[in-house]
Amino acid sequence: MSGLTGEGNRGKLTDRFVCVIQHLNRLMYSGRLNELRKLDLNVHQINALVLLDYYGPSRMGALASHLGSKLSHTSNIVDHLVCEGYLRRSSDPKDRRVVICELTARGRKATKQFIQLATIRANKVAEKWDLEQFESVVESLELLWRAEREVQESVLSSKIKNKTPDKA
């Protein structure tokens, strides 16, 4: 990569950063694809389970938004997960048009298995570092996590600011 996102040192560093993040994303799923097949799941479906595990029961629209997919695609994902017993679909008592998705016991178990595999892999990688390297990596990842959270908060804040009140 040679400065695809910008010129100079910052552009090169940005390219290296993006490359590392993409590689980490692949690592998070690669060794676990066989596990997904055993669970009769694909990446989109496990993403839905992980999101519901993290956020709790969610509206179909919110789940689609978090997955970055269209409602029709998310409905297909949820249909499969319901058929396999990983999710339960219900309607909001206040508005029956609203579909709420939540994990079943089987869905929680599958999500826990999937996350456990990432934990095992992370522990194996951590064993390769001495204490100083390990501390540096953890501090860097925590910095990344904080920065990502700030970006999310900034995006949310700007969406709220840009909303105009409904006219009567």
Q: How does this model look, in words?
A:
The N and C termini lie far apart (53 Å). Helix 3 (43-55) crosses helix 6 and helix 4 crosses helix 5. This protein is mainly alpha-helical. The longest helix is centred in the last third of the chain and has 32 residues, at 131-162. It has a 3-stranded antiparallel β-sheet with strand order 1-3-2. It has a domain at 1-30. The model has no long low-confidence stretch (mean pLDDT 86). 70% of the residues lie in helices and 10% in strands.
What fraction of residues sit in β-strands?
5-15%
| Secondary structural class | mainly alpha
Return residue spans where pLDDT drops below 50 for at least 5 consecutive residues.
none
Terminal CA distance: 53 Å
Helix fraction bin: 55-70%
Task: Based on Cα principal axes, name the global outline.
Answer: globular
The main pleated sheet reads as:
3 strands, antiparallel
Number of helices: 7
Spell out the helices and strands N to C: HHHEHHEEHH
Compact overview of the structure:
Helices cover 70% and strands 10% of the residues.
Distinctive features:
single chain, 168 residues, mainly alpha, 7 helices, globular
Helices and strands, with pairings:
Blueprint: H1 8-30, H2 33-38, H3 43-55, E1 58-59, H4 60-67, H5 71-83, E2 87-92, E3 95-103, H6 105-126, H7 131-162
Antiparallel strand pairs: 1-3, 2-3
Helix pairs in contact: 3-6, 4-5
